[in-house]
Amino acid sequence: MAKDVLCEVNSCKHWSNGNKCAAESIYVVSHHGDNQARHSEETDCKTFETKLS
User: pTM, whole model, 2 decimals?
Assistant: First the structure.
């Protein structure tokens, strides 16, 4: 897996300083539901979890 995964969503509990993702693993899915995507806009990060205030 990539050593440094960048993420700008600082409302996620896995977000870390320097816009780094600190999750143990990353799960990304396609909007189409068929494992096919041609552009990043057609994907979602399912690893996202809201940071508790």
Answer: 0.79
